[in-house]
Amino acid sequence: MEIIRRFLKTDKQSFFLLGPRGTGKTTFLKNAFPEALTVDLLLPETYRTFVARPERLRELIDAHRDHKIIVLDEVQKAPQLLEVVHSLLEEKRGIQFILTGSSARKLKKTGIDLLSGRALMKRMHPFIAGELGPRFHLHDALQKGLIPVVLDSEDPYSSLHAYVDLYIREDVQMEGLTRNIGGFSRFLEAVSFSHGTILNVSNISRECQVERKVVEGYITILEDLLLSFRIPVFTKRAKRTVSSHPKFYLFDAGIYNSLRPSGPLDRPVEKAGAALEGLIAQHLRAWIDYRHQDCRLFFWRTSSGTEIDFILYGTKVFSAIEVKHSSSVQSRDLRPLKTFGQDYPEAKRILVYQGREKLLRDGILIIPCEEFLKSLE
């Protein structure tokens, strides 16, 4: 695949760049910082060398004083290097460190706190529609997802299955996060049914025949590996009783499709609807991280069951977004947005659907899904 310009902005200050495996962190940095000195900890020999002697990083940098940008790729594999990085930053040598990682587990305990205030936090997501431009096709995105390493493959569907086996299960095994890989594999299939819904840990536990506490640990593993996320309930100035439990999403629509099984008893529209909602969720998260970091993503659900899929709330943004997997809009589809508008008249209200026409009805913008996604620049 040709190099596609990403919307992530770089910085002159040192920063962490976190993102799931295969989302293009290394490719992005090679193009953004071609002059950087790179330490690739995915290479076995490099990994062994720096784990055995972390201080070798200082020796390497001393030998390359003409390099002022240092990239440590997959730094979570050798978190002890962060103490050396901290020491070098304290010496104010004018060096910029860029620290990539696909797991926040070890970094949460050491690196992020250690370098607090000295390194910014940035995130890399799968492609979004605005980055792909004319290459973006909604149907393909819903089926194959938008992970660069998958889209760059000659057989994306096989690559999706390989991604689950090589990255997800392999990373879990390598980091010693669980010994019961069979139970974790059953959990992955069971949790896929929770994509776009409020998590019911007890139901997942029954489905995969794993104890509840273990399931809770598995969910944490997915979040630490940046493979899933939760969206909290919007409660600001609430005039109604609202839900207190967050919604769960896998990080990419293609991964969701790969993990969730289909059979004669499954309704295709349910799987397709969840995939569409998840695709929009991953776009909104990327849009926030790339351009609107003062904004946060929520959903809204009252105790009576009225729900809005997404709420964007920030200094200059307040939008309620409802997603419908249908090509037409009925009056009942607008009711949740009308209810939200009664409580929050300041909010811009948007309904995203699979139709072709852009409409304005009762103060609600009705917009085709592909047009909406491409507008997130």
Characterization of this structure:
- This protein is α/β, with parallel strands linked by helices and 377 residues long.
- It has 2 domains: 109 residues, Rossmann fold (3-Layer(aba) Sandwich), CATH 3.40.50.300; 246 residues, no CATH class.
- It has 17 helices and 14 strands.
- The strands form 3 sheets. The chain has a 6-stranded mixed beta sheet with strand order 9-10-11-12-14-13, with helices on both faces. Strands 2-3-4-1-5 form a 5-stranded parallel beta sheet.
- The mean pLDDT is 91.
What's the topology here?
Layout: E1 15-18, H1 25-32, E2 37-40, H2 44-52, H3 56-63, E3 69-73, H4 81-90, E4 96-101, H5 105-109, H6 111-114, E5 120-123, H7 129-132, H8 138-144, H9 148-151, H10 156-174, H11 181-191, E6 197-198, H12 201-208, H13 212-224, E7 228-231, E8 247-250, H14 253-259, H15 268-291, E9 296-301, E10 307-313, E11 318-323, H16 331-343, E12 348-353, E13 359-361, E14 364-368, H17 369-374
Parallel strand pairs: 1-4, 1-5, 2-3, 3-4, 11-12, 12-14
Antiparallel strand pairs: 6-8, 7-8, 9-10, 10-11, 13-14
Helix pairs in contact: 8-14, 10-14, 11-12, 12-13, 14-15
Brief write-up:
It contains 17 helices and 14 strands.
Structural features:
alpha/beta; Rossmann fold; 42% helix; 6-stranded mixed beta sheet; 377 residues; 18% strand; single chain; 2 domains; 5-stranded parallel beta sheet
